[in-house]
Amino acid sequence: xxxxxxxxxxxxxxxxxxxxxxxxxxxxxxxxxxxxxxxxxxxxxxxxxxxxxxxxxxxxxxxxxxxxxxxxxxxxxxxxxxxxxxxxxxxxxxxxxxxxxxxxxxxxxxxxxxxxxxxxxxxxxxxxxxxxxxxxxxxxxxxxxxxxxxxxxxxxxxxxxxxxxxxxxxxxxxxxxxxxxxxxxxxxxxxxxxxxxxxxxxxxxxxxxxxxxxxxxxxxxxxxxxxxxxxxxxxxxxxxxxxxxxxxxxxxxxxxxxxxxxxxxxxxxxxxxxxxxxxxxxxxxxxxxxxxxxxxxxxxxxxxxxxxxxxxxxxxxxxxxxxxxxxxxxxxxxxxxxxxxxxxxxxxxxxxxxxxxxxxxxxxxxxxxxxxxxxx
Length: 376
Ligand code: FAD
Ligand code: UDP
Fold this sequence. Notes:
Helix content: 25-40%
Number of helices: 13
Largest sheet: 7 strands, mixed
Distance between the termini: 18 Å
Strand order of the largest sheet: 7-6-12-13-14-11-15
Order of helices and strands: EHEEEEHEEHHHHHEHEHEHEEEHEEHEH
Bound molecules: flavin-adenine dinucleotide, uridine-5'-diphosphate
Strand content: 15-25%
Radius of gyration: 22 Å
Low-confidence stretches: none
């Protein structure tokens, strides 16, 4: 019999939640991670009493009650509600997601009826033109955005931001990227439609530390540095790293987008008055500024800490050595992933899970949901 039932490669949410369940089922688990800390991309670094989301801002949101109850059983979540604002190329600020506040700020319209009429006027000519060309469904992000919300909002709030984020023209991006964004005819700045959202009280490390409590963990340990050994010590492997790396890149490399963060500690208590401010102008090199304290400090608490930490986010193409963040869902990468997935399906003793192993843009809640459904 081997020393462990499971070797879990990666201590991100997938690996940590799997380890939690397996341990409770009486399984012997070892978790390894090549980083110097656990938690994967949700890991936070505490700077001057502020939890800094080191790999990008993370807001937990879900409508799945089982997932919500599960994470809250590990650590309670606070009442943070994501309501980003956008600083547009016209120098004005607009509420997101697109809702009555945005429409009022953009056009001065005060009722849903006026807003609908304005949007219809904005998109009518465009939709007609598409129809004339025989186009029945939007072929790219630009067509999707303009036919959904009209030219003004597309130009001021979508085009520049999206092109910076993805490094490609909106006409070359798939329509579905923008379908995630809600459009509402009510005065409601809540970015998500989900029933539940929040941030773990005390930060995300509480969540991942709670999941990994009592589990044997080795950090600074890369599976590929001694693959033969790691493969020999456990009955099964749960692999949450890059699937193409698992197969030695034999069909070629999958591509990613990544984000470079410029983080600054400032000697003021409140820099921008909100956790998230998107900069939608193409001329501003970063996509957004995160002010981390607003995820966990509300009202008067904000000024109780005289300092603040901000991160400017620069979206860039990924190269070896950088953190792989967003899978690029274009045809080349999808087809390549499919070839790796076929190999993975044939493995009897390896479970592939999470963002990198499934090459999929997963939010946190679906990751937890998936692990809760696995038999361990
Ligand atoms: P990861 O967290 O990436 O964990 C994988 C782990 O495996 C890492 O710790 C890595 O070091 C380790 N590893 C990889 N290869 C090896 C190896 N060879 N040997 C040992 N260890 C290895 N989701 C939301 O719900 N809300 C948000 O607001 C949100 N914002 C996000 C913002 C950004 C910038 C990013 C990148 C993601 C965001 N997400 C958000 C998604 C969220 O981060 C993921 O759903 C979640 O972290 C995925 O967990 P995971 O375990 O699959 O992957
Ligand atoms: N988006 C935009 N303007 C904004 C915010 C988002 O055009 O101010 C677009 C952009 O294309 C982005 C998509 O909407 O990729 C989805 O946004 P979301 O905030 O959900 O993306 P995330 O940051 O979670 O990847």
